[in-house]
Specification:
nucleus; disordered C terminus; Tesmin/TSO1-like CXC domain; mainly alpha; CRC; DNA-binding; Tesmin/TSO1-like_CXC
Length: 695
Amino acid sequence: MDKSQKNPTSQIGTSTPKSKFEDSPVFNYISNLSPIESVKSISTAQTFSSLSFTSPPPVFTSPHVISHRESRFFRCHNSVDRSKHLESLDGSAVKGEVVVPLVEDLNKEASLEDEEETSVETSSELPQILKFDSQTSEHSDSPCTEDVVIEASSDPPRGDNGSSSEDVTMGLQNMLVVREGNDTPGCGRLISDATELLVFRSPNDSEAFRCLVDKISSSERRFCAGVKSTKRPDINKDIPANGSSNENQPLAVLPTNESVFNLHRGGMRRRCLDFEMPGKRKKDIVDDQQSVCDNNVAGESSSSCVVPGIGLHLNAVAMSAKDSNISVIHGYSISGEIQKSFSGSTTPIQSQDTVQETSDQAENEPVEEVPKALVFPELNLGSLKKKMRKSEQAGEGESCKRCNCKKSKCLKLYCECFAAGVYCIEPCSCIDCFNKPIHEETVLATRKQIESRNPLAFAPKVIRNADSIMEASDDASKTPASARHKRGCNCKKSNCMKKYCECYQGGVGCSMNCRCEGCTNVFGRKDGSLLVIMESKLEENQETYEKRIAKIQHNVEVSKEVEQNPSSDQPSTPLPPYRHLVVHQPFLSKNRLPPTQFFLGTGSSSFRKPNSDLAQSQNEKKPLETVTEDKTEIMPEILLNSPIANIKAISPNSKRVSPPQPGSSESGSILRRRGNGRKLILRSIPAFPSLNPNQ
DNA sequence: GAGTTTGAAACT
DNA sequence: CAGTTTCAAACTC
């Protein structure tokens, strides 16, 4: 009976598709892997199962989860990556470019796309994990891993020079290796950034998964922490007994204090992280870098240092970038330790840039510098000096800026610390402060009260869309905005050009929600008129951009020929110019910046990153929804249109980075990647909506 | 560093 | 919901 039924199906199903699938390398690969093999004409179901076999249990579990996490993870990289990306392009450096961008693209795609993407996504992330954790699924994932690696290596310079591809692979390996080494601070950083990934390391996937889910879905990360931890003894030692309570090692897996720390810090604290980044200054960063580097072995120092950077918090990047431009408002974290931890996370990013550049091109100006100038020159023009000055003051005078409450007892939203979900610490100049661990109950109660009044009170003021990058640009040109202020500002006299304006402060344009008067917000006016300034800037950049591309191409060729140290080549080509491309970053960073860092999510609301977040956040926050939708709709058009046009029309940020330039064929190879990313995006587009069932 | 300005948060 | 007050950051001198 069954057979009869099955057979027909199987025949139909298998035979027909089989021919199709067989051709695909994936199928072959799978077939090879699968122990089941061709044994018998398995029912259709089986056949498919085999297909899915790779991803099934492990993948499925993780993928979704990962998608959330990853998006975060990657997102963080975006800014960094891009900068790197560009930088690398500049010189020869295929290395940074290759690895990072690819991963990033993969992530994006993955996040956007569902199943296939998921696998890819997983692969991108899993590779590291899997390799290190033999426990985890083996072959099923391995393939993906390979694919990823291959892509990464192949993609980039691929045609250009094998060496470069190798480098890329090496880079990945290094990352992995570092991770293996895991005890080194540097790796810790890396991992810390990828904290989420770490979870998977735990032998018990289910737990990890659970943890992730909690993390993602609920604002209370502490739950996660609460979850038993499969920990690594070695790591735990270092963990500072900070704060408070729950010192259950949440994810003991975390290698470093920082990472652990971060995890420990529940929703509120987590935010801290986000906010804190901005506060972090060069100085700290440098120190951190040094420390990191120092820890690393001389020979590998560079790599080590670099590695960490790969998986960092975007926030850090964005923040750092922004910081350079704008003084940060938020102060800091809980304690010196915390700060350190943060700095640690930050460090990687910075360090990466710094290290690479420093090592590769010491002569180049500091990373930060470029962004400053390039980033939003116009924007900053007016108050740049002031800001700079201020930031200096804030940065140097005090390790971090804190509140200065006199009457609110730091139990109202007036208090930045409280609003940010962090306890006040020494640096604060507050009086009669109740926002301390000692008064935890009071704090929680007050917080609750406020939340009851306004559930979003502690949510990020600035809501960014899933792809802040994409959206930001989109918004700017077309719609209200991917990123915008939760409630909108109400400025009367500042014209939304000062930090009094929360929109401006948050680096986002004003939206319809704003009731501001005489809005001249450089990030976008309430009326929708975009940044005129930006446009002009973009145009200028456009030219430069093309030139640079040509240059890049040239470099690529050279690198091919040389097929050796790209770094050696770099010297010849000054990064600065390419950095210019990075301009977007800063912008992005700005948009993303300060306030709530998206991916990290805010304590109260499940404000997470992008897509995944959207699904959740949508329930809570409609703005996001809107944004997302807009974006979704917009994207296709954008893609269809010529990249350049898009770039102008849209925001410089993402567009620029991604948009392939029509330039020469060579550039094509490099850009192609980008192009691919887009392609993927296209595919994903349809899928995107599906991700948000809620809609 | 003190004083002023500003707009969000809180209150009525 | 609108108006007013309170508050602390942002800004100026």
